[in-house]
């Protein structure tokens, strides 16, 4: 699998990071389902879906599809093509089209809700948790605190957009990577550009 075949899918996951995400997912898919927080239009979802299909598991894709702070009108990553008739950001129609176009609907379960709400009733153990949701400190901390407990022993916690220097990007993903590293529950495994993995002890 190479993410080049998803070149028409909107997203912010560079090819080398997408390949690495799939490799990590492949290593732990035997331990439990894969879950991502922050699906946007489905680029990372499709990468994980190929792994899930080959491994006999599924992907839970958690996203309210109303966009993070940086996707709103006037912000740097705003895309006018993803605005609905009421003037609201909505990536869900594009996400669903991409799942259908790439025949991924049988291995992806979309959960269209805020991650904090979905987490209140979550009980399923996870082989991989990919955090790529809102990049405010509050949002990133909530994703880490609400979901990391569900990663099984030997499973992976993967965090996107981890930049140690503020000039390179937001600091919230870096903050939760540090929290996980210092928690005694996870150990760092590897890094590829801005994507980092930690294994549950």
From TrEMBL:
Provide the alphabetized UniProt keywords. Answer: Methyltransferase, Transferase
Q: Does the keyword Methyltransferase apply?
A: yes
Gene3D superfamilies cross-referenced by the UniProt entry: Vaccinia Virus protein VP39 (3.40.50.150)
Question: Per its UniProt entry, which superkingdom is the organism in?
Answer: Bacteria
Q: Tell me a Gene Ontology molecular-function term this record carries.
A: methyltransferase activity
Checking InterPro entries in the record gives: SAM-dependent_MTases_sf
A Gene Ontology biological process annotation? methylation
Q: How is this protein named in the record? A: Class I SAM-dependent methyltransferase
């Amino acid at each position: 699998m190479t993410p080049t075949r998803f070149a028409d899918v909107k997203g912010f996951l560079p090819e080398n990071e997408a390949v690495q995400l799939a490799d990590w997912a492949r290593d732990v898919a035997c331990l439990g389902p894969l879950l991502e927080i922050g699906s946007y239009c489905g680029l990372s979802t499709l990468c994980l879906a190929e792994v899930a299909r080959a491994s006999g598991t599924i992907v839970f894709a958690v996203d309210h599809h109303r966009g993070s702070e940086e996707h709103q009108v006037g912000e740097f990553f705003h895309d006018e093509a993803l605005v609905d008739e009421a003037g609201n950001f909505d990536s869900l129609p594009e996400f669903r089209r991409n799942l259908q176009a790439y025949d991924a609907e049988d291995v992806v379960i979309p959960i269209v809700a805020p991650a904090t709400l979905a987490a209140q009733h979550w009980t399923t153990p996870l082989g991989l948790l990919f955090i790529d949701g809102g990049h405010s400190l509050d949002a990133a901390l909530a994703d880490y605190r609400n979901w990391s407990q569900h990663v099984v022993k030997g499973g992976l916690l993967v965090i996107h957009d981890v930049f140690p220097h503020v000039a390179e990007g937001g600091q919230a993903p870096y903050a939760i990577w540090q929290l996980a590293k210092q928690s005694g529950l996870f150990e760092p495994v590897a890094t590829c550009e801005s994507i980092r993995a930690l294994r549950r002890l």
